[in-house]
Amino acid sequence: MESWWDAAVQLNGKEMSYLNVLDTEAAWQLVSRFDQPAAVIVKHANPCGVAIASTIFEAYTQAHGADPVSAFGGIVAVNGEVNADTARAISEIFTEVVVAPSFSADALEILCKKDNLRLIEGAAPFHSMAIDVRSIDGGLLVQSVDEVDEPLDDFTVVTERAPSDTEWSSLLLAWQTVAATWSNAIVLANGNTVVGIGGGQPNRVDAARLAISRAGERATGSVAASDAFFPFGDTVSALAAAGVTAISQPGGSVRDEESIAVANTHGIAMVFTGTRHFRH
């Protein structure tokens, strides 16, 4: 079975730990979903910075700027070559691992001055293993991999207002990110940058409040993605109060009409994706 790890090369740093491998895998899988230059920062298997831009440097600076507190001690993944400018920016922050398709000679000269910084050069994931495996007492729990590949044709606008082109672009970024975040999860994106992530919460409204808190003023004019349906309209109300303008969610609640009505009241565009992504 092929794996990108088979051909990956560690160019610098300490030996990879168990958690380093898990977090690097999570970061590499997510950043590899994007066709544009992208950067992902992961901490404890959750993304804390995600951005796409015209260059890798811009993507990294935007991803880091979204939540610099959480990015400290994180894993950085980019889907293009790390150049000197990007290396200098990364070197200013304590980082555990940087994974990329390649590093320029100048970038290596800068980053290798940090003896403990792990630099991994790797190819895109092969996706050859179609199952997820977790251990339980006396056995293994196995399920198929959660693929985030639903076509846009499956998305349905359910509100009076449809998303603008800009909102659609941000919604797709938020949707990819929320699928990679521990559930219950809400993700806010503004433009090409994820500005607020609330994950791993026992209820959806708290996940929204956490995402809103992390986004701060950047929540105004942002869009939101939810990994599962809203059981009540309270989460939509919280997002509306924060200035969110569009929402993507799977739909499927017996109270979908309540959430749709709240969205319409506030002029929010809402899209049902038809697929939920519970990450546990």
UniProtKB/TrEMBL annotation:
InterPro entries: AICAR_Tfase_dup_dom_sf (IPR024051), Cytidine_deaminase-like (IPR016193), PurH-like (IPR002695)
Keywords: Hydrolase, Multifunctional enzyme, Purine biosynthesis, Transferase
Pfam families documented for this protein: AICARFT_IMPCHas
Annotated GO biological process: 'de novo' IMP biosynthetic process
Record's keyword annotation contains Transport: no
Keyword Transport belongs to the record: no
SMART domains: AICARFT_IMPCHas
GO cellular component terms listed in the entry, alphabetical order: cytosol
GO molecular function: IMP cyclohydrolase activity; phosphoribosylaminoimidazolecarboxamide formyltransferase activity
Protein name: Unannotated protein
Native source species: freshwater metagenome
